[in-house]
Amino acid sequence: MNAPLHHSGRMFLVQALAMLVSCGVAQGAEPEQAVRPGTTSTGRVVEGDAAGARPPGPGERVDGPGMGTTAAVATITLSPEIIARFAVTTHRLEAMVLRDPIVAPGTVAFRPETTVHVGTVVLGRVATIHAQLGDAVNAGDPLVTIDSPDLGMAQNEWLQKRAAIAVVAADADIAEQTHLRAQLLAKDDNIAAGEAQRRAGDARKAQAALLAARVAAQTAENTLRIHGLDQAAIDALAQTGSVTTRLVIRAALAGTVIASGVTVGEVVRPETEALMTIADTRHLVVIAQVPSADIPTITIGSPARVTTPGRDGNPLAATVAYIAPQVDADTRTVQVRLLIEAGPGISSGSFVDVEISPSPPTGVQEPAIIAIPRTALFSAGGAAVVFVAEAGRPGTFSMRKVAIAPARGTLIPIISGVEAGDALVDHGGFVIKAEFGKAGAKDED
Prior knowledge:
Number of strands: 23
């Protein structure tokens, strides 16, 4: 009889433990495996409403090793080093009018206004290369030094023309003084009228010669400028008279050397297309091909979001800067340019997906809601959760269960759980989730 009683006792304990677990108070649950943003513990992609989350109460916190509804761990704190290493970032939530976006493919390029093709204005041979491919340069930094005999000859000619001005000016001064004396003598009939007229003609000729000399010198100076000398270099040449055949080509703007095809000793000419190319790699442009039927709902300044297919990470904010006035006859699309800042996985030549927010219909008042990027949403304990930075506690984060609506493009509308002003973790949340799991496991021990 003892054996049946022992068996009944075990069954009772099993049933009691099951009841405790179902009530959310069991303390021996296995911690959920940390997952990447937007995936399950098995690596399956989970997108917003597809995560199988059940609606919670507004602002309900979800903590603890099993990521269930118990509050075994209220918050976790990350060191500044961990935050920097895993690029944990947040942004303040703001209510927005969410509309179905206009989706179009796009290509990233450098902005034309911040891209410079460096050439030469003189015929010569490359003597020194100061900047290599990939180097960052500032405006005015030396790029290439060219040895040009033509430049030396132009300087010699300018020095000669400049010296000729002094000789002609002296002759003109003498001719003018002679003319003035002849006028005085002619008044007293001490000189023939014809002689006085001849001296007046000599003075005018001398002034004309002086003007011609000055024009010749100015022409020679203009040649120096055409050959790349600036005013400081011309002033130094005037003071020293020292001629150089070396021309230093400098950067016109700050940026990065993205192309360089020049070698030391190479002969270069003004018609050479480019010695180097410099671009500002921080500020880019996206060229999107938008269906012509959607163009009426887009305006200059319309906000947009840019994502790279197949890459994790937050969408990058962009702004419509240009809408082409013509429709492509083959594709029936219109080119739209958007300004964007460089980000992970975004570089010139990348293919991207563009989501442009259309303008609201005329006369329609639309409600503003909270929406978050897909990468900020996690699945934990069968619920959709996000992480929020605690106000006034640097590096401290809490977990919030949220109720979500169907995705709108790359954004997930939030029904409840967070509100405007909360500092949402939009990148690096997988580290925070892992820390919650570890902290909960320690509490169980």
